[in-house]
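re: that chain from earlier
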Amino acid sequence: MIMQMRRSLVSISSNIAKGNSRMTA
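^ sequence. v structure.
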């Protein structure tokens, strides 16, 4: 369960990073 949460957090953080880079670009 913890691993799934950690994985989801990583995916969400990566998605946010992509959105930020896309917005700044």
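The mean pLDDT is 85.
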